[in-house]
Amino acid sequence: MTELQQTYSRTQQILTSFSQGDASMRVIYQPSATSPYDRVQTLKFYGFITSLRMRCDINSIAEGDMPNIDADSSRMDRLLALRDMEWKSARKQISFFIRTAQVDWQPIFDVSLLNRLPYYQVNLLPYFTDNISFDTSNDCLIGAQITNAGYGLLEGTDRVTIYGSAREEITTLPTDAKEISFATPYTWQVSPESQIIIPANPNRQQVTLTNTSLTTDININYGGSAQLGRGITLMRGGGSYEINLQNLYRGAISAVASNQARLTGIEAV
């Protein structure tokens, strides 16, 4: 049965903060990944940053003097006064970067962090775009880093918080993949002697296995024989493994354990 193209959307919160001595590059947004076990063959991921603001609480430097602008000052004089206050007074600085899978981090803009009591906020979205949202591809990362502009990094109680939201869309393309019709549940007692737990099945769509033993690991293998300490290890206390359309295998599956261990699972067709 052919499925129609569908688009699913959700909102992801953006929230990160910087404090004393923090000089690390911080990824503030990247489009979310869906589960690798989703049964959709082809997915496209998009991110639309619709809101991005920054709260600046800087106390470790002197409070900047507000420019004294006369009423008859020209527009140019006013702009120069504001520029000097922003970039020539005592300040901290935060830099923003962008990268993709093909291009490493590239700087896109800097923002001065001033001491304005008690604190102030900056709308960051206009720095990225003139549109109502900043569109990102599935391999895009937006990063931020506190950089030294001559007055050091954040100190004492300095704190910068970046917050906002992004709308994400996932588009599923038409597929002729067969849907699961039913599943058979199983329970096995795995021992030190290798055994086939699921025989080959040409109609298999999915297998999920879970080690419910609290004391013993289980090793599984594709084929008729499993070996201790080799293959795929299902850790004690809930270790699991799944076969699905992303890694489909329809042959026999075997298992072995150093002591008696309980394994549960399903096979779906």
Can you characterise this structure?
The protein is mainly beta and 269 residues long. It is elongated. Strand 4 and strand 5 form a beta hairpin. The chain folds into 2 domains: 6-172, Jelly Rolls; 183-268, Jelly Rolls, CATH 2.60.120. The protein has helices spanning 75-87, 125-128; strands at 6-18, 26-29, 43-57, 92-99, 106-113, 120-123, 134-136, 141-147, 159-172, 183-190, 195-198, 206-211, 218-222, 232-234, 240-243, 253-257, 261-268. The two termini are 15 Å apart.
| End-to-end gap | 15 Å
Radius of gyration: 28 Å
The biggest beta sheet, please? 5 strands, antiparallel
Average residue pLDDT: 89
Q: Which fold does the CATH topology of the largest domain refer to?
A: Jelly Rolls
Number of domains: 2
Q: Which blocks of ≥5 consecutive residues have pLDDT under 50?
A: 36-42
- Give the number of helices: 2
The sequence of SSEs as H and E is: EEEHEEEHEEEEEEEEEEE
Helix fraction by DSSP (H/I, runs of at least 4): under 10%
Do you know the CATH architecture of the largest domain? Sandwich
| Number of β-strand runs | 17
Structural class designation: mainly beta
What top-tier CATH class of the largest domain fits best? Mainly Beta
Global shape: elongated
The percentage of residues in β strands lies in: 35-45%
